[in-house]
Amino acid sequence: MIVIKVRKNPGVARDQVLSLLDDDERDNIYPSLGQNILWSLTGELEVLDYIEFKDDRAYITDKGKKRLEDYEAGLTAEEIRALKS
User: Fold this and answer.
1) Number of domains in the chain
2) Of the spans 8-17, 34-43, 72-81, which averages the highest pLDDT?
């Protein structure tokens, strides 16, 4: 979901990524997403080369775009709607 949000909002500030998620996306998982967990997750996505930070702003990488396209190609229409893609 984070990569999808960054794709839709390229250049979002690192500390604003959390605000891209709605209440359901943040709170209806365990553990709920807070800024500290989100920083860890975005750090892992950066290590995997799915997103990158330039001047503390998030951008999806070519590898991230490809991975997301492959992932989305395998989803059913219902799953796509559920992800609000």
Assistant:
1) 1
2) 8-17
| CB 10, CB 60: distance < 8 Å | yes
Tell me the C-alpha distance between 53 and 79, whole Å. 29
| Cβ neighbourhood burial of 73 (10 Å; 0-12, 13-18, 19+) | exposed
pTM of the model: 0.82
Structural domain of 71: 2-83
Q: Which amino acid is at 83?
A: L
Condensed to tens digits (0 to 9), the pLDDT of residues 32-41 reads 888 889 999 9
- Residues 26-55 as b or e (16 or more Cβ within 10 Å = b): beeeeeebeeeebeeebeebbeeebbeeee
Spatial separation of the C-alpha atoms in residues 45 and 60, rounded to whole Å: 10
